[in-house]
Design a protein that fits this description.
By secondary structure, the protein is α/β, with parallel strands linked by helices. β5, α8 and β6 form a beta-alpha-beta unit. The longest helix is centred in the N-terminal third of the chain and has 35 residues. The radius of gyration is 32 Å and the shape is elongated. The chain starts with a helix and ends with a helix.
Length: 266
């Protein structure tokens, strides 16, 4: 009897010990699995980076440099052909060599994916090129034409009718513009407008812009010598969400603008 009891107690005591081994094996397997499925990944070559991330980074390069990358390899040719690589065009750095033919080719390559374009000081761009840009890139949201002194109101009219998603427009230092291109524009989503040094734009032309763009938040119009005190009241009347206005007027007019904004908000 005693020997039977001892044998039974010995079996009960040995059973917990046998349960310990599976736990250690589970810990070892989980540690191996964590090493296998670790989110940290070592990148030894640029080809190991996802193509989408590379394409998003390349959009900040000079447009001509992007074209050169296509000749590097088939991999880069595929990356540069990605639509995410052509959402932004900064042509300000190549303004001296950007002729109409190259510009039209860039617009054709970017197409409907293009949302931001900078043509600052690109003096070779004319009205016809702006018309082509509007047709090929209708989803543009930000356009900078600062110091493009060869464009006229006809070129601006192409933008006014064709770019319905435009949110940011910079026409600063385009002193040749008279404002006739703003008639019946379709910039209802416009948030920022810069007409600094547009010396031929007066109150009448300013009202054509503001009356159909009630969402404007930022206005820059320094050195617009034809604008009068009535231009300040136009901002108060039409732009209820304006947060910043740089007009270069007398301090008294700035006070009128601030008091008018406070009255409209109440």
């Amino acid at each position: 009897m005693l020997t039977n009891l001892k044998s039974q107690f010995g079996k009960k005591e040995s059973s917990p010990v046998s349960k310990v081994s599976p736990i250690s094996s589970i810990v070892s397997t989980t540690s191996k699995a964590s090493k296998e499925f670790s989110p940290i990944r070592r990148v030894n070559h640029i080809y190991d980076v996802p193509a989408g991330l590379v394409a998003s980074a390349l959009q900040y390069l000079d447009p001509k440099e992007r074209i050169k990358l296509r000749q590097l390899s088939q991999k880069f040719n595929a990356i540069v052909s990605d639509s995410r690589c052509w959402t932004t065009l900064n042509c300000g750095a190549i303004f001296t060599t950007l002729d109409p033919e190259i510009f039209v080719g860039l617009c054709e390559r970017a197409g409907e994916q293009l949302t931001h374009i900078n043509l600052k000081s690109c003096w070779q761009i004319l009205d016809d090129e702006l018309g082509v840009m509007t047709n090929l890139c209708p989803n543009l949201q930000a356009v900078c034409l600062s110091n493009c002194w060869k464009i006229t109101d006809r070129g601006v009219s192409y933008l006014a009718y064709g770019l319905t998603k435009l949110r940011f427009l910079d026409l600063s230092y385009c002193g040749q513009l008279k404002g006739f291109g703003f008639i019946d524009h379709k910039w209802g989503n416009l948030r920022s407008l810069n007409i600094t040094h547009c010396k031929q734009i007066g109150d009448e032309q300013l009202e054509k812009i503001l009356s159909m763009a009630p969402e404007i938040e930022t206005i820059k119009m320094r050195r617009c010598v034809r604008l009068t005190d009535f231009g300040v009241f136009l901002i108060i009347r039409h732009c209820r969400y304006v947060e910043f206005c740089c007009n270069g007027f007398h301090h008294r007019n700035q006070h009128l603008l601030q008091s008018g904004e406070s009255s409209t908000s109440t």
